[in-house]
Structure formats: C-alpha cells, structure tokens
Amino acid sequence: MLLIEKKGAAMTKILISAGEASGDIHAAAVTAAIKNIEPAAEVFGMGGDALRHAGGEVLFDIKEHGVMGFAEIICKLPALFRLRNNFIKVMEERRPDCLVVVDYPGFNMKIAKIAHEMGIPVVSYISPSAWAWHKSRAKKVAQIVDKVAAIFPFEYDVYHEAGADTVFVGHPLLDIVKPLLPRNEAEAFAGKQKGRKLILIMPGSRLMEIEKMLPTLLLAAKVLKQRIPEVDFAMPRAGTIPLELLESKIKAAGVEVRITEGHNYDLFSVADLALATSGTVTLEAALCGLGSIIVYRTSAINAFIARRVINIPNIGLPNIVAGRQVLPELLQEDFTPEKVAQAAIDLLQPERNAQMKRDLEYVRERLGKPGAVKRVAELVLKIAEEKK
C-alpha cells in the first residue's frame, strides 16, 4: 500500500530500495547516517523493520518480496511487475532527488534503469556481483547508475574498468557489526554454558531458504549432538521468518534449539561455531570472530545455470574476501547432515580453530577502514544536492 506524501517539503528526498533482510540492515544504516547529517531529509521506499526503525518510510515491506534463484523469480514475476509499477508511481508523484539501490539486483537494476530514464540520479550500493558473474554485467550497470559505491577492492576494479563512476567506500559491516553487551550478559542471553560448546544454526532470511536448508541443518545438529553430547544449539531468527515456522521445523526434527531474538552480534561473539546458509550473515559472523560451515542448496535447474555463469571458485563471502577457502563450503549434493557434522567437528579442533581465527582476522583487514556508511550517506546527499 502506498503512503501519501506528507505536507511540508523536506530539504532532500531519497528513494531507497532494499529487497531482503541483509539489504534492509544496510539501507537502515545509510538512512540513519543521512538523517544524522541532514535531519529534515525524507527517506522512503522498500525495506523492513530495520529501515523503519532508522526513520525511513517503508512503502513496500520486504516480507512480501524476497525471492532467490532463477526458477523462483519466474514464479514471482506478476508480483514483481506490480511492485515495479508502484515504484514508478512513487517516482512520478514524489520526485526523489536520488534513488539508492541496495543489493537485490534482479529487481533493483530494473528500477535503476527507469529512474535513470526519468532523470533521477542513481547510487548503487552493495552492487550486483559482476566480479562473480560475467563482467559484462558491470558494463550494463555503468550505463544506468550515476555512482557505484564499491564495498570490496576487487569490486571497485571491475566496475571502474567497465566505465562506471566508482568510489571505494570500504565495507559497511565494519561500522554495523558491533557486539554491545558485556560478555557475561551476552553468554546469558545466548544460553552459553561453561564447559559446553554453543553452535548457531542460521538457515537464512528467505522463506525458500528455510524450506531448502533448515531440515538438513537440524539433522546435522542431531548428528553433532550424538557425537559431541556437550553441545547446545541456538538459532537467531531473521525478522522476515515467522517464529511459528521455525518452531514447527525444530519440533519435527526432534532436536533442542533455542530461538533468539535480536542481539545477533552479541550472540556471534560468544558462540563457538555456526552452521550457516551462504549469505551476508557469514561475513557478519566472521567479523565477530565466528567461523561457519557454509552451506547452500538450490533447485537442480538453478544449480545447472549457476555452475555455467558463476566464475569464482567459492561462494561464501569470507572465502571470497580472503581470496581462498578459509571456511568449509558444502553445496548441493555435498550438503548432507553427516558432512556438515564432520566439518563442524574438524573446525572445533584446537589447532584448526586457531588457524580459522587467524584467517578471519585477515578477512577483516581486507575490508578496509571503518566509516563506509557515513561515506555513502555523504555521497548520496551530495548527488541529491546536485540534482536540485
């Protein structure tokens, strides 16, 4: 449902589009930074609870629009066409000074093209992973985006070579990922007990990921419990996933798992290991010193297509940033309860665990200096001001 523009013109109007839970976090951080610099600025568009809490006006909630994979996108096309038309209506009626697209490339690049044709400047933040797919993708982005705010050094290189106006801002997670609780309070919140290992189960933030990943992760937890009795499990709930769904899956698996709400970074800072669906959360965990067994499974047709178009050896973000595999990846047919459990046992061994911690420190160093969020906010406001 669209909201009517408030009376009393704001100094700056920013349209923002983030399509998933991780994008919502990044969009919210930029929104908060924009409002810190220019409190009267209006930020509105697509996001979730994080964007709402940061002071953004959520016109379209991400709970209704998250999709993954090639085949699933086809099924959601009618809804995505309606969403696109609603975005066009917002652009026509509210005339934003700048559009900020955050991740969610399949949809956001279409919106960016429309905004570009309407004369609205576009900033791409958490840009399409052209470094992972065919590099011609970067050239297409360069034609419709006014500025690419690159978060990885290798991302800057690809977009700069493609002719995009690109600036390396550093990685926003360095600003966002900050445990807040004292360690004893974090341990109490997590249910961490002395002499026992705490393993997190992180199945993803999309409903389709829960269906494809969670049952196998829970079976892996059962195997681990049999082999390491002194282990407990916790599962941080993504805001996009209903609590009842997680509870029903856990009950069906017959394994004890504590579901937590909020304080994810405190949770990451006291846990021993994570079993995690590939995504931004594995990098968030890495920045807290928490290693993951990175897993993923998609449909046969999605896997067939992906294997032919993805041109990097790893899919886990910590491994991509490191430029080598520092955390195990179990994908498709390798993603079984037994293999996940064994990989976890191996990674918990003292010598291997110490090496992993050193590797995760290297990952942090590769991401540049803190301050990325503020740099993006300043960039957006500068471009918006030039538009006026």
Task: Write a structural description.
By secondary structure, this protein is of the alpha/beta class. The chain has 2 domains: 13-170 and 371-387, 3-Layer(aba) Sandwich (Rossmann fold), CATH 3.40.50.2000; 183-366, Glycogen Phosphorylase B (Rossmann fold). The chain is built from 18 helices and 13 strands. The chain has helices at residues 21-37, 49-53, 70-75, 77-94, 105-117, 136-144, 153-161, 173-176, 183-190, 207-227, 243-253, 264-270, 280-287, 300-309, 317-322, 337-348, 350-366, 372-387, and strands at 13-18, 42-47, 57-61, 98-102, 122-125, 147-150, 166-168, 197-202, 231-236, 258-260, 273-277, 292-296, 329-331. The protein has a 7-stranded parallel beta sheet, sandwiched between helices. Strand 8 (197-202), helix 10 and strand 9 form a beta-alpha-beta unit. Helix 1 crosses helix 18 (372-387), helix 9 packs across helix 12 (264-270) and helix 10 (207-227) crosses helix 16 (337-348). The longest helix is centred in the middle third of the chain and has 21 residues, at 207-227. The protein is globular. The chain starts with 12 loop residues before the first strand and ends with a helix. The model is unreliable at 1-9 and 67-71 (pLDDT under 50).
